Amino acid sequence: MRCCFLNPLSVCCSRLNGKSQDPLLVYAVYATEVDCPESETPIEWMLLTTEVVADIQTASTILRWYSYRWRVEEYHKIFKSGCQVERYRLAAEGMKTLIGFLSVIAVELLQLTYLHRTQPSAPAIEILNPLELRILKAKSPKLPTILTVSWAVEAIARLGGYLEHRHKTPIGIQVLWRGWLKLHDLCEGWQLAKET
């Protein structure tokens, strides 16, 4: 991507209640794809930001931040659909604690799904601690020669109800969430049994 930045713009915004507020100073960063394949149209982005963009390095930083948008959206999908945060109805303090707890799980699930998509052949120990790995091995009917990220995600999904005979069906986030919780319950049970 090649990017440039424009002089700050003053934009008028309106509030939800219909009253206007003071103009907002925003900066525009314009980016175009370079070395695009001949048969394709180059990607072009016009990004608006309230961050001060005074040089090309800052414009590049804004562009890099925007490239993380897809991961942030995936995180929110996991948080809302997988962790089902919206179904809980707690008082403010209780909700803060729950959101903190679910945020950690959503990040772990994001890491699982990301590595499953980008590095399925990586060692399973990259996403599981030794106890989680030990329990998944014990719960798996047959073990592959090499324990990979792909195997670990499928084993976790089976704990959540993923049907083995439907291997062509993608693993959904809700089944992965249920499997992740069950794996953690099994780990806790193992640790409690070991202590008694």
Brief descriptors of the model:
alpha+beta; 196 residues; 4 strands; 4-stranded antiparallel beta sheet; extended; 6 helices
Secondary structure: elements and pairs:
Layout: E1 2-5, E2 9-11, E3 24-32, E4 44-49, H1 56-67, H2 69-82, H3 92-118, H4 130-139, H5 149-159, H6 173-195
Antiparallel strand pairs: 1-3, 2-3, 3-4
Helix pairs in contact: 2-3, 4-6, 5-6
How would you summarize what this structure contains?
With 196 residues, the chain is α+β, with helices and mostly antiparallel strands.
Give structural notes.
This protein has helices at residues 56-67, 69-82, 92-118, 130-139, 149-159, 173-195, and strands at 2-5, 9-11, 24-32, 44-49. It has six helices and four strands. Strands 1, 2, 3 and 4 form a four-stranded antiparallel β-sheet that branches. It is extended, with a radius of gyration of 23 Å. The longest helix is centred in the middle third of the chain and has 27 residues, at 92-118. The model has no long low-confidence stretch (mean pLDDT 82). With 196 residues, the chain is α+β, with helices and mostly antiparallel strands.
